Each structure stands twice: as structure tokens, then as C-alpha cells.
Amino acid sequence: MSKDFFCEVVSKTMLNEDTALIEFLCPEIAEAAMPGQFVNVTCSNFLRRPFGIASADKEKGTFKVGVKIIGEGTEEIASFDEGEGTWVLGPLGNGFDTSVSDKFILVGGGTGVFPINFLYEELTKAGKSVKAVQGFRDKSQIIMNKPEYLLTTDAGDAGLKGNCCDGLNTLSEDDIKDATILCVGPMPMMRAVSAWAESKGLNCYVSLEQRMACGIGICLVCVCKIKAEEEGVPFEHKRCCKDGPVFDSKEVIW
Amino acid sequence: MSERLFVRVGDTFLKSPLILASGTCNMGRELSEIYDLSILGGLSSKGLTIKPRAGNEGVRVAECTAGMLNSVGLQNPGVEHFIKHDLDFMNTLDTGVIVNVAGHSTEDYIDMVKTLDPHKDKIDALEINLSCPNVKEGCMSIGSDAGQVKKIVSELRKLTDLPLWIKLTPNVTSISTMALAAQEGGADAVVLINTMLGMAVDIKTRRPVLHNNTGGYSGPAIKPVAIRMVSECYQVLDIPIIGCGGISDAKDVLEFMIAGAAAVEIGTASLVIPDAPVFITDELEAWCEENDTDLASLTGTLKLW
Fold first, then answer.
1. Residue of A38, A54, A210, B222 with fewest CB within 10 Å of its CB?
2. Catalytic machinery residues of B
């Protein structure tokens, strides 16, 4: 069945000067979307642009994505106004398996704050125990933050001075006991959070990102290095888009 | 399906001229979840080698004007794995099963064909990849030497009765010389063209975007080059040509066929619009109705100035 839908923009909010939160109307994607999944959005440039889903409202039939402007394609998509539309392929990839635990600590940074938002909404709705830590460079970069989150900034001009791991270190033994860590953010952050989780003996899942083309697993350009099951094979190249983007952090070769 | 879409590539009958190009459809599983692949004339597997290959590391894709560069580097599970896990699946798709054969040396290609020939009941054609630009040895370096093309094709010809379709590289001075060499070696058809060797530069880091430095350029940008090569080869070849390069709509298919293609491959279009062949099929059927003709009779009807 085709997963390609023409989606109309029903709202757009600029979160800061280079990041937009766009709400698309598409009951099919809203109904099927799971936190950690993404959509591949058509623009005037040749390839589509992938975005993690930031929330989904099944009743309204809408879903949101965060668009950080980094080039021509994202600039065009961020410029879409209400009433405009484009083709969106989704939902794609494997989301986070939230059945693995009843207690989660979410860690977000960069554009990872969008899927973290979706996770937080769905996990609290499901009545699970959730804590969240988000890290930003400085106060001006803070987006998608909630009062319930533990906020950190490298500059120290808002929240706790330091990075996400410094934030995690302020949690109590009770907070972290038996928790599962779900992390989405820049690679160095995910690597550091994975190491932190391992040091505490906690399970950790991360959402990997690579330059992508098709988004559906047919072109093999967006691969990441994952430990191989077969003995004697150093690693396997797995597709971020189809085999991921969510992987068990213990399987990732950083 | 309208019978007006039936075409022939030598002795191979296809219910449509549309074949999914190797490397842009994996083994068919992912796209079969999106649309019914039985509308296609065929599907060409991911390029296979004797041993599994992890492919190239680092960034493998760079978007370019009307297309993209890739440097996947023939990542594949190896031919034995393919035979065990994928070949039967491809046979459930009710479409032509084309197996794309790659290698680093003449011996590799010989081993590949020897390995695949016992499964010939499940294979409609072998597409011999003498054109991948993203590996250090074999493939394009063989396909850009007419002597080697003729030698390798004639070696493989002795090993199998399966149709041998030779996929050639455009990165040569004279494509018709290579196509003629393939024909002299005993090829059943040539596939024109694989990707064009290219490079993209990151102006901030002053490094190539691709960690392999170069990659294969595909997409609508290369279509005119491909059509010129199809036309040039059609004028000198006796064997059929399968056209490939930037096809994204029915008009593109018609252009290729008029220039001399008996069938065509759709590649990069699937990466942007996965079900593009569904629309193209509908458009081709409508065109045949409107013009009261079949597609096969179009091949090579180009009237040069």
C-alpha cells in the first residue's frame, strides 16, 4: 500500500529564527505514527528531506515535524504556510519499543528534541514513569522544552550548566533504578549517554541519523555500523531508515 | 495489464518495458509492500558478488542538480545468501527475475555465473555489471576496455544458456565500441547506461562530500546522455538495448524506446517516488490507447536529421 500522501499544512510556528514546527493534515500518518518514526518530505530539490515525528493527534488527523533550516530544502519546507501542501512519505522506520519497560528516562538534544516530545506525550498518556533531560548550547537555542524536563545548557545561562550527562548525574538512585534510557540527539551526545547508561547498567536505545535518500530501505546510502551477529565479522552496515533509526546502544559501533 | 505493453528483449518476453534497475530496489521486498510489482516487466537484484561486501564507509550520497551521486560500493549479502534467502522471494513477485552479477576479476564473474546457472529455472536473465564506478577493481575498469569486455562475455557465454545482459558504463570515449565488443562476445542484450562518475565538493571543509571522493551520478540530469548512447548503439548493434538513465515518466520511456531501447530500467525515480512505475504504467497504457499502437513497435523508430 502506498505510504505517499499529499499533506496540507494546517499550522506553522517558528520556534526560533531557524526552526519551524509544522503541523500537517494526514489522518493515515497520524493514526499509524509511533515515536521514533520519521517522514520523508518532498521539496523542490531532488531528494526528499527526512524529519522525526514530533507529535501526532489521531482525533484531529494531524502530525507535527520540526524543521531546522540547514540548506535550500529545509528552508523551503520551513517556509510553507497554512494551506500549502506537499507529498509526504510515512510513517517510516522502526520507532522506540515502549513495551520494554514501565520506567523511562528520555534524553534529547539538537533536532532530537522533536521525537523526544512525541515520546514524552505518548509515555505519559500510557501512564508510564517518565523523566526527561534536554541539553542545549545556550539559552537562545532552547526549543520544545517543558517545565517537567531537566534542562541543561553548555553556557550555563539557563538550567543546569553542563551537558546531558551532567544532567543525568543529578538524578537520584531511585530515579535511575531499572529505568530504560531513550536518547535522540547529535552523535557525540548519544555516544556519551550510551556510555553513561552502560556505566549504570541500564538499557539504552538511540535513534541514529545518516544522510538519507529513499527512506524506505532500497538504496542503502544511509547505513550505520552495527555489531554483526556472525562471528568473525567485524560489523554490519545496517540501514538507518529501514533497520533503524532506533537501535540498542550496545549494538552500535560509535 | 494491456497487452500493448508487451515487449521482447531477444528471446525474453516481458509484460511491460519497465524493469527496476539494480541498486534502486534492493531485492524487491520493500517496494512490494508499497505496490504490486507484477505490473513490471522485471526487477534487477542488488549487484551481487561471490563474497558478502560491507560497501563503502562514511557519507554515501550527495544531492546534485536533477539527480544524486552515490557511492554505496556494492554492499550485498553475497550470492549464496541471495540464493538461499532472496531468489525464491523474487520468484513470488510474478515479474521477470534479473540477477545482477558483479565482480573484481574475470574469475569472480565466472564463479558467479557457475553458482547461479544451476538455479536457471528461477532466473530470466543475468545482468552482467561491467559498470559500477564505486569499487576499486573490476566492474567499470573491465567495462571500459573493449578487449576485456569481449573476453569476459565470451567466457561467460560458454557457461550458461541464460540470457546475458551486459550493463555498460557511460564513462568511456566510445560506447558503441564497448557495446559491439559485448555483442561479439555473445551477449543477448546491452543495458545502457550505469551511473556517470562524478564528484561534489563541500565548500566549507574543501573536501569531497562523498567519503569515497567520487560517486555515480544518476537521475534526470543524465537522461540526455543515456538517450544519445542508446541511439548511437542502436545504429550499429544487432542485439537489443535496454535503456536506463533518469527515467521518471512515460514520456521518458517513449523517448528511450524511439531512440532504440527494447525495454527500459527505472532507477533513481524509485528513490524519490517509490510507486513511480504505477503512474508510468498507467500513462503508457493511456498513450497506447490514444495512439492505437503497441509499445514494441516504437523501438528504433527515430528519424535522424
1. A210
2. 132
